[in-house]
Amino acid sequence: MVIIEYVQETWPAKPILSEDPHERAMARFWAKFSEDKCTPAIFKYFSTQGEEHDKARAELVENLKTLEGALKGNKFFGGETIGLVDIAAGWMPMWIQRIEEVLGKKVVEENSFPHLQTWFHDLLSLPFVNQNLPPPEKLREHLKNFRNSLLARST
């Protein structure tokens, strides 16, 4: 969060946070929600099997539904431009898509999460995001090996 505040103060012409105190507070809330609720749920879903995996999926889906509601039909969490929440949760689209491929199961279905699905696409389509992502196949291979390592340790 400190770096975000630094960027906000250094380049005020390209704000990450709204000038409105309520909107700033909401952005901080949703950034914290993605960090405290979604990140652990994604990791738990990714790193477990069986009944524990099913419970983790249910928890992840509930957290994603909550996050879906925060988009409120906007292109980004900050409205028409990316903001704090998009930056804080910006790793999720690429990683969730690769995790879905590794596990062979969809979590973010278009009919269940239309706003998140659109946000995934819009965020990953931004040139400054897209040009700085690892190749999907390398991330998929890394996640596959990482998951195998985690599961081997848990048995």
What does it look like?
- With 155 residues, this protein is mainly α.
- 71% of the residues lie in helices and 0% in strands.
- The chain is globular and about 50 Å long.
Beta-strand residue fraction: under 5%
Q: Roughly what is the average pLDDT, rounded to an integer?
A: 93
Q: What are the segments in which pLDDT stays under 50 over at least 5 consecutive residues?
A: none
Give the count of helical stretches.
8
Number of strands: 0
What Rg is obtained from the alpha carbons, in whole angstroms?
Answer: 16 Å
Binned, the helix content reads: over 70%
- Which H/E pattern describes the elements? HHHHHHHH
First-residue to last-residue Cα separation: 37 Å
- Give the biggest beta sheet: none
| Secondary-structure class | mainly alpha
- Principal-axes geometry comes out as globular
